[in-house]
Write a structure and sequence with these properties.
This protein has 205 residues and is mainly alpha-helical. It has one domain. It has 8 helices and no strands. Helix 1 crosses helix 8. The radius of gyration is 18 Å and the shape is globular. The termini are far apart.
Length: 205
């Protein structure tokens, strides 16, 4: 908690930006859902893509081990989305990862849209997963914003030049990423438990 206190202080100091990012990302997710309901082919294309790239097969193979499944979900969320999609692009081009994740948030909504009765039932327990994991991504986008701001406007972090601002921005990335990691852990465990123990009765019921 001592380490998270610093993280929360940074978040509170940038509360307006944090609120705007929440509105954008959850809003884009809901817009994606709405688009898939109006145009069901969008959802069908996303589901087919997951089957073709092996995502569906990987999930099926891991359903027998809740902890291995949790670890895999955590690794995918952190490495392929938080790091590869949001943070790394933002380390090369200011704010690039935020734009990249906006597209991802929209696609998440398209993929998870309740296009039929079964999907609508599954969305009830899965809504908690969505809330937790999307919030973790919002925190990572906040970290990307703070890096970009410190890089372009070093005075906001009391830096003498952009190089020093970049370094101090990276420190802020580390602090804000801590609560995001906690949410990623919680979300991964809950999602694994949900898909293994909660979802099957809803599908067969």
């Amino acid at each position: 908690m001592r380490y998270l206190r610093t993280s929360f202080q940074i978040i509170r100091a940038n509360l307006r930006t944090y609120a705007v990012l929440n509105a954008f990302m959850y809003g884009l997710f809901l817009i994606g859902m709405g688009a898939a309901l109006v145009f069901p082919d969008l959802n069908a294309a996303q589901v087919a893509s997951q089957q073709e790239d092996g995502t569906a097969d990987l999930v099926a193979a891991l359903l027998g081990n809740v902890w291995l499944f949790s670890l895999t979900i955590f690794a995918v969320n952190v490495l392929t989305v938080a790091v590869a999609t949001i943070l790394l692009p933002s380390m090369l081009v200011p704010f690039a990862g935020i734009v990249a994740f906006m597209y991802r948030a929209f696609n998440f909504g398209v993929t998870l849209a309740p296009v039929d009765e079964t999907t609508a039932r599954l969305l009830v327990p899965h809504s908690l997963t969505i809330l937790i994991e999307l919030q973790a991504y919002v925190l990572v986008t906040l970290a990307a914003y703070l890096l970009g701001r410190a890089w372009l406007r070093p005075k906001t972090v009391d830096a003498r030049n952009r190089r020093q601002g970049y370094v101090r921005g990276l420190r802020q990335v580390g602090w804000v990423s801590l609560p995001a990691l906690v949410l990623f852990v919680v979300g991964a465990v809950y999602e694994a438990v949900e898909l293994i123990y909660i979802v099957p009765p809803l599908v067969t019921g």
